[in-house]
Amino acid sequence: MNFKLTEEQELIRKNMREFAAKHVDPIAVEIDENSRHPAELFQKLAEGDWLGMPIPIEYGGAGADYLTHIIAVEELSRSCASTGFTVSIHVGIASMPILLFGNEDQKKKYLVPLAKGQNLGAFVLTEPGAGTDVMAATSTAVLDGNEYVINGTKTFTSNGPTGGTYLVFAWTDKAAGRKGMSAFVVPREAPGMRAGEHFKKMGLRSSQTSEMIFKDCRIPKENILGQEGAGMAMAMTGFDHGRVGIAAQSVGILQAALDESIRYSKERVQFGAPIARQQAISWMIANMATDLSAARWLTYHAAWLKDQKQPFSKEASMAKLFAAEAAMRHTVKAVQIQGGYGYIKGAKVERLLRDAKITEIYEGTSEAQRMVISGNVLR
Amino acid sequence: MPTIIACFKWVVDEAYIRRGSSGELDFSSVDFKISEYDRNAIEEAVRLKEAHGGKVIAVTVGLPGATKGIKDALSRGCDEAVFVADASFENLEPSQTAEILAAVLRSRIPDFDLIVCGEGSGDLYAQQVGARLAEHLAIPCVSFVQKLGMDGGTLTADRKVEQYTEITSLPLPALVTVLPEINSPRIPGVKDTLTASRKPVATVKKDELPAVGEPRLRTIGLAAPRMDRTCEKFGADDAEVTRFADALRKKGVIR
Questions:
Q1: Is residue B171 part of a domain?
Q2: Which residues of A touch B194 (CB under 8 A)?
Q3: The complex's ipTM?
Q4: Is residue B222 part of a domain?
Q5: What is the overall mean pLDDT for chain B?
Q6: Topology, domain A7-120
Q7: What's the pLDDT score for residue B18?
């Protein structure tokens, strides 16, 4: 067993920490308050190759392993969970399926600009009536000559208003059940596709989320990813990758909650001593540090399995489930430790608490993760 | 095409030093980093290369475990590195480090044009290595440099001296020690870090060097500074405000 990161991974973590302190921390409160997508920040992320880390160099990426990407998402999320998430979704769930299932032409045309950060990727599956129950989706794609025609309404699409390349899932043969869904790469300029208004959310506010409306959206038939009917399996593979990213985002939130709790409890004096000396507080921090460590190693293990080319679906779900629930549990405590000061807008813990909640919901709710895990262990 | 040497020291990252219960320093879980001002030295060397061509060779003297530091330096734009490593190099004195660097440069890179060092290291900040190295090599040395320019065989270096700026001009080869305001070091991109280990690194062992002089300093003890804080509360009425002003006067804060 070897729990040591490589020297490159350690350096990349430090570099991302420095990047986040220099470019993300100063704007994190503002982009949250204004629900603003910081395009200028993503330009800088692209320049540092942070938007295509695990994509091979020949496809415009940095050629890092998945674990290295995960460490960067964690460090970025420690400063701003919205930014960390946008990177995670762009890489893990939007770009990775094109790398894994796309043909050479699709990779050259769509993956290279994604990996270089020239545009953002989005994963377009959820519908108003189809969340965890993916089979309830109703969007369709019908072949008409040399084009597929997509119709339907999608929702909660992250990077919807700001995306450039959309991975869209629709039925090509509803009667075929799970084998009837297909995946398509749809460029922003495709006629008939439109992003709705950016939703105003409780947390994760600078990440842009919207409906995606497809009205006779026509795309060339070569934009299908793999074969007709392979979409569902691709979506699940996308989720496996994406969930490790959400776990990393949750770990970043947890680390920030711990950083904030340690800092505040050592400074805040009540009853003549720093509150860190009160057992009520120090035990909260002990629990936080313990769950952080557990969440981090579950996450790194899932990423490591992926890098070893071993199955990691169950481990990705476990990491995401545990890290997300721990982030929720402990950001509540982090606000409690800071009392009234932690409840005021602009306090970092207040933002962490609002940002943590979504990690239990998207890319599979905690309940959906338990379905995946129990399905694996009860087999 | 100039050959520029950037010297750096791989030092303990002070953020990881803990204070033990009796004031002793706990180094048990420290990480290391390129000394802050040496990052400016590397950055300046790389910027000069980007403007004038040539190459940058990073040189460090340290423990054999400092391989991460070499990769860090190479990821910042240096083209090659010379790593002078030995297990006995943990607490070298500035005079010893300067001797070693001089021997390595004389034997391995005698045709250098410019040496850039940080003004002082992040741990000792003795400001000795640069000046001593220049003396060993018998080349001009300018310290406290906040701006550098290179034109053919001539270097211009702006020195920060108290509230003045001294503008100096000197022939190459030369050595400068730089201040942090000279530049803002780049944050290496992911590819820069991942490809750093493909760049050439020459490792020099202790037995390839002439014997180094004996240490002249002895560390007797190392302890965290103690900062005593007192807290006195004052009220808001006139008498209390007078008492507050008196207290400040007594402490010499106001006159």
A1: yes
A2: 8, 62-64
A3: 0.92
A4: no
A5: 93
A6: Butyryl-Coa Dehydrogenase, subunit A; domain 1 (1.10.540)
A7: 87
Contact criterion met (CB < 8 Å) for B194 and A63: yes
Domain span holding position B120 = 3-208
A275 interfacial to chain B (CB closer than 8 Å)? no
CATH fold for domain A122-229: Butyryl-CoA Dehydrogenase, subunit A; domain 2 (2.40.110)
Residue B190: pLDDT band with limits 50, 70, 90? very high
What confidence score (pLDDT) does residue A168 get? 98
In degrees rounded to 5, what are phi and psi of residue A146? -95, 15
- Could you tell me if residue B238 is inside a domain? no
Domain spans of chain A, in order of start: 7-120, 122-229, 233-377
Task: Give the model's confidence band at B255: pLDDT under 50 very low, under 70 low, under 90 confident, else very high.
Answer: confident
Q: In angstroms, what separates the C-alpha of A268 from chain B's closest C-alpha?
A: 15
Residue B235 CA: distances (Å) to CA of A272, A273, B240: 19, 22, 5
Answer whether A7 touches B (CB < 8 Å): yes
Return the CA Rg of chain B: 22
User: What pLDDT score does B221 carry?
Assistant: 84
pLDDT of residue B162: 87
Per-residue model confidence as pLDDT tens digits over A245-286: 999 999 999 999 999 999 999 999 999 999 999 999 999 999
Q: Give the C-alpha separation, A117 to A52, whole Å.
A: 7
| Cα B32 to Cα B15: distance, rounded to the nearest angstrom | 10
In a domain, B115, yes or no: yes
In A223-359, beta strands by DSSP E: 224-225, 269-270, 273-274
The CATH number of residue B28's host domain is 3.40.50.620
Can you say whether the dihedral through the CA atoms of B196, B200, B202, B203 is positive or negative? positive
pLDDT per residue over B43-102, tens digit each?
A: 999 999 999 999 999 999 999 999 999 999 999 999 999 999 999 998 899 999 999 999
Q: Write the CATH number of the domain with boundaries A233-377.
A: 1.20.140.10
Cross-chain Cβ contact A49/B189 below 8 Å: yes
3-state secondary structure of A209: strand
Q: How large is the average pLDDT for residues A152-176? A: 97
Tally of domains in chain B: 1
Q: For residue A49, which residues of chain B lie inside 8 Å, CB to CB?
A: 189-191
Best of A14, A44, A66 to substitute, by most chain B Cβ atoms within 10 angstroms, is: A14
